[in-house]
Design a protein that fits this description.
CATH architecture of chain A: 3-Layer(aba) Sandwich
Helix content of chain A: 25-40%
Strand content of chain B: under 5%
Order of helices and strands of chain B: HHHHHHHH
CATH superfamily of chain A: P-loop containing nucleotide triphosphate hydrolases
InterPro entries (chain A): AAA+_ATPase, ABC_transporter-like_ATP-bd, P-loop_NTPase
Number of strands of chain A: 9
Mean pLDDT of chain A: 87
Keywords (chain A): ATP-binding, Nucleotide-binding
Order of helices and strands of chain A: EEEHEHEHHHEHEEEHH
Distance between the termini of chain B: 24 Å
Strand content of chain A: 25-35%
Radius of gyration of chain A: 17 Å
Protein name (chain A): ABC transporter ATP-binding protein
Helix content of chain B: over 70%
Strand order of the largest sheet of chain A: 5-6-7-3-8-9
Structural class of chain A: alpha/beta
Shape of chain A: globular
Oligomer: heterodimer
Shape of chain B: globular
Low-confidence stretches of chain B: none
Structural class of chain B: mainly alpha
Organism (chain A): Secundilactobacillus collinoides
Pfam families (chain A): ABC_tran
Largest sheet of chain B: none
Number of helices of chain A: 8
CATH class of chain A: Alpha Beta
Chain lengths: 238, 255
């Protein structure tokens, strides 16, 4: 099978601190992959590097045959693209901005997705609850026709109903052949929808496996598999 | 990929929101102060003076707000994840800032002309020889403002780039100290370049403009000053794009 994303020997340092070191990751098309790791393990940093938001790294990041950050940005939809919006604007106006600057943004899809998630488009961004904020972030990210979606902790701090709605949106709105990399440190939220998992620990990907392989060969649930990496009483590494 | 034109228009429209707010505040201030003046025995002609003062202050405020908006683009995921090269984003952002200011300036002129309609005859009496000086003066002001915005970005980029190599501990304090140090260093470099440039220009000026009228000399001086700021802006912009590509990353703070 062809490879969608290749990350090879990736090392990233900032403020005299190693955040990622000699990290390798490959993703295939048409998958939902869980990027699992404790808080501060480097999940967000890895996504920032793949998306092109962070640039001062060593190693290789390639998406298909797209190597430059600008080329990658054209085919990666990262949930962090909403960071920095004007808090006082209405959701529909914010979506208009993305419709203008991203050639692959589908406004009709966004409206349907927002309706599915129960978002009022006339609401102002700063009036959204935590759950609705996350729903909006996911709606913007999934409204692009990208090859790779990076959803950074979309279930962080939200109630179970919102979680369920977001999970069903991810399944329903994922374009065919696109891959979604979703990071989380509460595996139970997403375990059922994952095709594969990659575990980040000690500044690198310590293991990457297909979900079926874990369940069938290892006889473990995704939760047990993930927790086995932290079984030695380790907590956050920063 | 997003086209340069589409990006420029979108950024321009975003910056125009700030400009419209400022113009709105200006008009409210103009009306309030004019009414106050009329109640204190003044005539409608005071509007032209009030409009001049109000819009002069607004120009300074808008310069600062546009600088703030411009700097926000460099470190915001909302803009930096747009599929364009950093060079295109840089050019579009700076150009959108300039266009917003020019648009504000045109609106400001129209409002000031309307406010000073009774004194419009004095404007028409300006001799033809003064128009080139007026236009050159405006060009110099615009080039100076452009240089100011680019200079602020340089300071910002150098601070971000240098602080990436310093420990995360007490980053805020480190950044304040860095800002002061870098401001002084960059200002000294610019000052040194300015002296060098003005030396070259004054040599050209004195040898080539002997026997030329005073107004032509003034226009030439203004245009050469503009040229100086444009060249400085281009040099700093090259440095800015380099730093942006290599070290200036987006903020990791949530929206």
């Amino acid at each position: 099978m062809t490879t969608l994303l290749t990350v090879a020997n990736l090392t990233y340092k900032r403020n005299l601190k190693t955040i990622l070191e000699d990290l390798n990751l490959t993703l295939e098309p048409n998958q939902i992959v869980g990027l699992l790791g404790a808080n501060g393990a480097g999940k967000t940093t890895l996504m920032r590097l793949i998306a092109g938001a962070a640039t001062s790294y060593h190693g290789t990041i390639r998406l298909g045959d797209q190597g430059t950050p600008a080329e990658r940005k054209a085919i990666v939809s990262f949930s962090e693209q909403v960071a920095g919006v004007n808090d006082n604007r209405r959701l529909v106006n914010i979506a208009d901005f993305y419709d203008h600057v991203y050639p692959d943004f589908d406004m009709a899809n966004f409206r349907k997705l927002a309706t599915d998630l129960g978002l009022g488009l006339d609401q102002r961004f700063n009036q959204l609850s935590r759950g609705n904020h996350q729903k909006f972030v996911v709606a913007i990210a999934l409204s692009r026709h990208a090859k790779l979606y990076l959803l950074d902790e979309p279930f962080n701090g939200i109630d179970s109903m919102s979680r369920k709605k977001i999970v069903s949106s991810i399944i329903e709105w994922k374009p065919e052949m696109a891959t979604i990399l979703v990071s989380d440190h509460h595996v139970t939220d997403i375990a059922n929808i994952l095709d594969a998992v990659a575990v980040v620990k000690d500044h690198t990907i310590v293991d990457q496996k297909k979900a079926d392989e874990i369940r069938e060969n290892n006889g473990q649930s995704i939760e047990d598999y993930y927790e086995s990496f932290y079984a030695e009483g380790e907590t956050d590494n920063d | 990929m997003t086209s340069f034109g589409r990006l420029l228009v979108t950024l321009w429209q975003e910056k125009n929101r700030t400009m419209y707010q400022m113009t709105g505040f200006g008009l409210i201030a103009l009306v309030v102060f004019t009414i106050y003046g009329l109640f204190n025995g003044g005539s409608l002609s005071i509007m032209s003076h009030i409009s001049m003062v109000v819009f002069m202050l607004l120009t300074i405020v808008l310069f600062i707000l546009l600088a703030r908006d411009q700097e926000h683009v460099w470190t915001s995921n909302k803009y930096r994840l747009i599929p364009v090269s950093d060079t295109k984003l840089y050019l579009a952002n700076v150009l959108a800032t300039v266009l917003t200011f020019v648009y504000f300036y045109i609106l400001e002129l129209v409002i000031m002309v309307i406010c000073g309609i009774s004194e419009i005859s004095s404007l028409t009496n300006i001799g033809n020889g003064y128009w080139p000086q007026l236009l050159s003066g405006q060009l110099l002001m615009l080039a100076f403002l452009l240089f100011g915005w680019v200079f602020i970005s340089t300071i910002h980029f150098v601070i971000v780039s240098v602080s990436a190599f310093l420990p995360a501990f007490r980053q805020r304090l480190i950044r304040v100290v860095l800002a002061i140090v870098i401001f002084i260093v960059v200002l000294n470099i610019v000052n040194w370049l300015q002296k060098l440039m003005s030396q070259i220009l004054s040599n050209m000026f004195s040898s080539s403009l002997l026997g030329v009228s005073a107004s032509t000399q003034l226009t030439t001086a203004l245009l050469l000053g503009t040229l100086y700021f444009v060249i400085s802006t281009v040099v700093l912009s090259a440095l800015n794009v380099y730093l942006m590509k290599r070290w200036v990353e987006t903020s990791t703070k949530a929206a």
